[in-house]
């Protein structure tokens, strides 16, 4: 099979604060190329830059059977992620990962939360603040509830914009954090902070849907991490104090009944948001046993050192098996679509 690994070429300078999250895709690219070549496939790479000409020419000349879509942005804009999938759809190329509709939805955390609520799935009370919005304490308290609150960009992933200041306990801290994030990211999501245990749940559909073993983030609260949250630093600065204070454990040590409830909620979120192939659902469980969906990531980090790969290993699915089943699932899906047209 002729396979092209498509990814957004890193465009940020190495000293940019977001460089690590953008360049992280290269680990997935390199590992997938090795795995697919080992499985007998012919593999090439294509870095998508600020123009689509290179992709159009590549598809016309190489005619790949499957494109592994690792694009997380276009022309340096994360909001362009679903448009790349749309282009592959229009070109009639079989590709891995989420559909344009799914990727556009889950990037918009507010729309996703409205959908989850409409499907009677649990998520924290929230409000969206646009750059031009005025807001007052009484109004937000009526929507979100009492402090503490959690503040993050409304349409980013990879923990961008999340820091030790993201949990706010009073009005002054809220205003400072909202103003800082709106200036950099635009719309901001303010939601009730959910205390408790945090779980990451990988779900794959290759082709049958399977919930992978649960992972729990085991927090060590201290100066580096005063609140139990996964910050940008703890996610991307490997070996830092913040990273060591947010250690994943997979499989999670969770009682069977609670584990089954978590898997049920994660699978429902996967299906409701239209995810396919692979995704990750992040949840919190309170001391009282209430489950809340934090986020649905329809295009999570698929690198060999990421949480998804860790859960696959615990499920006795090797990285090579995952890569091979992923491209075969996409190929069969493309063949069915071609036969139906």
What's the short story on this structure?
This protein is an alpha+beta fold.
What characteristics describe this protein?
single chain; 341 residues; alpha+beta; six-stranded antiparallel β-sheet; four-stranded antiparallel β-sheet; 13 helices; 13 strands; 40% helix; globular
Topology as H/E string? Answer: EHHEHEHHHEHEEHEEEEHHEHEEHH
Main beta sheet: 6 strands, antiparallel
Number of strands: 13
List the quaternary state of the chains: single chain
Count helical runs: 13
What structural class do you assign from the helix and strand content?
Answer: alpha+beta
Q: Could you say which overall geometry the principal axes of the C-alpha atoms support?
A: globular
Name the helicity range: 40-55%
Roughly how many Å is the radius of gyration? Answer: 20 Å
Average pLDDT over all residues: 93
Strand fraction: 15-25%
N- and C-termini, Cα separation: 22 Å
- Which regions have little confidence, pLDDT < 50, spanning 5+ residues? none
């Amino acid at each position: 099979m002729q396979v092209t690994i498509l990814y957004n070429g890193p465009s940020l300078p190495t000293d940019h604060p977001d460089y690590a999250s953008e360049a992280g895709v290269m680990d997935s690219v390199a590992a997938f190329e090795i795995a697919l070549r080992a499985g007998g496939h012919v593999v090439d790479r294509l870095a998508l830059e600020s123009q689509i000409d290179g992709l159009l020419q590549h598809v016309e000349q190489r005619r790949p059977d499957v494109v592994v879509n690792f694009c997380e942005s276009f022309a340096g804009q994360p909001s362009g992620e679903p448009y790349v999938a749309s282009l592959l759809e229009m070109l009639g190329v079989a590709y891995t990962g989420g559909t344009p509709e799914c990727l556009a939805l889950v990037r918009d955390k507010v729309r996703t939360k409205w959908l989850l609520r409409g499907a009677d799935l649990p998520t924290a009370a929230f409000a969206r603040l646009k750059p031009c919005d005025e807001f007052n304490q009484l109004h937000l308290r009526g929507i979100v509830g009492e402090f503490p609150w959690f503040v993050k960009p409304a349409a980013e992933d990879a923990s961008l914009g999340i820091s030790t200041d993201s949990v706010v306990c009073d009005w002054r801290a809220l205003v400072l954090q909202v103003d800082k994030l709106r200036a950099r990211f635009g719309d901001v999501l303010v939601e009730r902070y959910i205390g408790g245990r945090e779980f990451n749940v990988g779900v794959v559909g290759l082709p049958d849907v399977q919930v992978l073993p649960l992972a729990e983030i085991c927090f060590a609260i201290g100066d580096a991490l005063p609140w139990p949250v996964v910050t940008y630093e703890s996610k991307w600065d490997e070996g830092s104090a913040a990273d060591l204070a947010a250690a994943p454990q997979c499989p999670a040590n969770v009682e069977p009944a609670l584990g089954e409830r978590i898997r049920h909620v994660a699978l429902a979120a996967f299906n409701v948001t239209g995810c396919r192939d692979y995704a990750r659902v992040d949840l919190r469980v309170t001391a009282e046993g209430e489950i809340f969906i934090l986020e649905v990531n329809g295009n999570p980090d698929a690198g060999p050192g990421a949480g998804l790969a860790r859960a696959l290993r615990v499920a006795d699915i090797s990285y090579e098996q995952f890569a091979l089943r992923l491209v075969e699932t996409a190929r069969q899906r493309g063949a069915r679509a071609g036969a139906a047209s």
